[in-house]
Amino acid sequence: MLDSFATRPLWDRLAIGLSGLCAVHCVATVLFVGALSSVGHLFAAPAVHEIGLALAVLLGAFALGTGALKHGMMLPTAIGSLGLGMMAGALNVPHGASEAFYTVLGVSTLALGHLLNQRAHLGLA
Predict the structure, then answer these.
(1) Which of 22, 55, 95, 123 has the lowest CB atom count within 10 Å?
(2) Could you list the residue ranges that cross the membrane (predicted)?
């Protein structure tokens, strides 16, 4: 039986939400920079990516780290860390479709780590 959204640990819900916002940001940047060239530089500013990654690392470290300490499973933390690494690597790719691809792949992998962390908290892993 599927667990309800309300029973999932708060930090994992926040981290998954942040991952989703990151994915939306990346796709929106690629799609709208051409159409919104007058303000497109704001969406593609390096600071947006760097701050987003810093927030993802802090939230991920806290949620996945406390989860590993609580339930003892390292797989969610390992998968989440892989996702964070892909996101960090995407910062070194020029803006465009490739950057968006690697970032979305990274946030999806990170979200999977948080989902596994939630399942481990609930004893479903």
Answers:
(1) 123
(2) 14-36, 42-63, 75-94
Domain limits for position 55: 9-121
pTM: 0.71
Tell me if 1 is assigned to some domain.
Answer: no
Question: Tens digits of per-residue pLDDT, 3-58?
Answer: 566 667 888 889 998 888 988 888 888 777 666 666 666 666 788 889 989 999 99
Looking at residue 76, what is its pLDDT?
A: 96
**For residues 64 and 113, is the Cβ–Cβ distance under 8 A?**
yes
Query: Measuring CA to CA, how many Å separate 82 from each of 36, 60, 63?
Result: 33, 11, 15
Rounded to 5°, the CA angle 58-114-44 comes to 55
Q: How many domains does the chain have?
A: 1
